[in-house]
Amino acid sequence: MRRETLEETGLKFGATAKGWVRCVRYRVREGGRSRPKVVTLRLAEAAAGRVRLSAEHTAATWVDCVSGERLLAFANARRLLRDAARHVGLRAGRRPGFGAGRGA
Fold this sequence. Notes:
Strand order of the largest sheet: 1-2
Structural class: alpha+beta
Helix content: 25-40%
Shape: globular
Distance between the termini: 16 Å
Number of helices: 3
Strand content: 25-35%
Largest sheet: 2 strands, antiparallel
Number of strands: 2
Order of helices and strands: HEEHH
Oligomer: single chain
């Protein structure tokens, strides 16, 4: 996970939130054919680095959860964001609860 995160984004991460892993399954089209894709999501605190876009991405920005929900096009992505925020105890105006004593 650490290697792929660094390769895909240029970011290193510190603490991970234990107990929150989600899989998203969907279909993608390549060369006129549809194939299944599975993405495994985990929560991690960005520790260092500057976002570097790979060829798979067009933009990156840091936003709060409310803004994030507005930016996400798919309902399942908005649900995942809310679920992740609840898991780390995120409340308006507070930082995520990563680290000692908060599921690290």
